[in-house]
């Protein structure tokens, strides 16, 4: 045995060196994957509690560090255009008499008041492993439709108008990094017996974390901050356009000179 080792000493030395290189490469790869995992932000957009439009829109931070949420943009695609709105602040409406004296007294407590602020403002840091919700998908759709003046019949639009897809887009800052990060996910909408059904368009949330995407997000973030963006729309009101066209045709017809018969 010792004689065989002595005879093949050079070959065994080369094999040992080659094996050491492979081990170090594997170890370096594991270190790199661990570092990349810690530096890669991951935000999840999902539905919770239900599977239809009454489901909560959940946002989860699965990153290793804190993510500061800057903007939450909702985009509603319809058969007549697209409606885009900043839904970072959770809209809540109250009518007179909605709160009884007990609830009013509870709101006067500082802790309850701070909780109320957190329930209405979605801009801020989200801890690793934490989550929040921005209301139900139905509330988001109603909010977008109300901003555009669309008449609703339950959860579905009135008339021939159709809602086809709703997209949620997040823009935030990850840990100590200067460049923003983002995430987006779309949900298809279909009408079933005057109610909207909700189905994810993809199995996972799309991460916007590449260098090109982050530069694009930075330009978008600068534009949003400079213009105080709240909503935008390419929605086309067909009924209004038809009424305007009919009105213009009638006005043009009334302005045409009439020929009088001469005796």
> Roughly what fraction of the amino acids lie in strands?
25-35%
The pLDDT mean sits at 78
Helix content: 25-40%
CATH C-level label of the domain at 36-88 and 124-210 and 223-233: Mainly Beta
How does the major sheet shape up?
8 strands, antiparallel
What is the gyration radius calculated from CA atoms?
29 Å
Note the run of SSEs as H and E.
HHEEEEHHEEHEEEEEEHEH
Instruction: Give the count of helical stretches.
Output: 7
End-to-end CA span = 137 Å
CATH architecture classification of the domain at 36-88 and 124-210 and 223-233: Sandwich
Number of strands: 13
Quickly list its features.
263 residues; alpha+beta; Immunoglobulin-like; eight-stranded antiparallel beta sheet; three-stranded antiparallel beta sheet; 39% helix; elongated; disordered C terminus
Secondary-structure blueprint of this entry?
Layout: H1 2-7, H2 9-39, E1 43-48, E2 56-61, E3 67-78, E4 81-86, H3 101-107, H4 110-120, E5 124-126, E6 131-136, H5 137-148, E7 152-153, E8 156-157, E9 163-174, E10 180-192, E11 195-200, E12 206-208, H6 211-227, E13 231-233, H7 238-255
Give a verbal description of the structure.
The model is unreliable at 93-117 and 259-263 (pLDDT under 50). The chain has helices spanning 2-7, 9-39, 101-107, 110-120, 137-148, 211-227, 238-255, and strands spanning 43-48, 56-61, 67-78, 81-86, 124-126, 131-136, 152-153, 156-157, 163-174, 180-192, 195-200, 206-208, 231-233. Among the domains are: 36-88 and 124-210 and 223-233, Immunoglobulin-like; 95-122, no CATH class. It contains 7 helices and 13 strands. The longest helix has 31 residues, at 9-39. The radius of gyration is 29 Å and the shape is elongated. By secondary structure, it is α+β, with helices and mostly antiparallel strands. Strands 3, 4, 5, 9, 10, 11, 12 and 13 form an 8-stranded antiparallel β-sheet that branches. Strands 1-2-6 form a 3-stranded antiparallel β-sheet. The termini are far apart.
